[in-house]
Structures are given as C-alpha cells and as structure tokens.
Amino acid sequence: METVGAYEAKTHLARLLQRVEAGESVAITRHGREIARLVPVQHRADAATAVAELRIARTGIRRGEASIRELINEGRR
C-alpha cells in the first residue's frame, strides 16, 4: 500500500482514484500520521444476496416483548 500526504492526495486525486480503481490501496497521511485509506469497492452480487446476509446476521436479535410503538413512545420520554 502506497502512502501519500494529504496535500499530494488533494493535488493528484484523479491519478490516485485511477490507481484505486485498478485494485491498489492508498493510505493518506497528515503530518506522518495515517488519517484515511482509499481502497477499491467490493461489489456484491445483487441486492437479494445482501438482504439474505442481513437476515442471517440478525438471527437471534430480539427487541423483547415491547411493540415497536411502545419502544417509540419510550424514546420520547
């Protein structure tokens, strides 16, 4: 992973984005300290896959015996 300063990143953003699009990762630093990373996006196959993954992740998560309306009203107190 290449490291670039914030000023250089601002000045050469288009070039950095091309490199990230090609699969590279770039760390952006300010005063020698890493503050951000540009990384390629990992695309999901489709929306149905994302929904299925969310449902699996939510398995076992419960809100108790309260209804949604009761929870909303509780938050307003």
Describe the structure.
There is one protein chain. This protein has 77 residues and is of the alpha+beta class. The protein has a single domain, classed as YefM-like fold (3-Layer(aba) Sandwich). Helices cover 45% and strands 19% of the residues. The protein has helices at residues 6-11, 13-21, 47-58, 68-75, and strands at residues 2-5, 26-30, 33-38. It has a three-stranded mixed beta sheet with strand order 1-2-3. A hairpin with a 2-residue loop joins strand 2 and strand 3 (33-38). It is elongated and about 55 Å long. The mean pLDDT is 87.
Name the helix and strand elements from N-terminus to C-terminus, one letter apiece.
EHHEEHH
- Architecture, according to CATH? 3-Layer(aba) Sandwich
- The dominant shape is elongated
Strand content bin: 15-25%
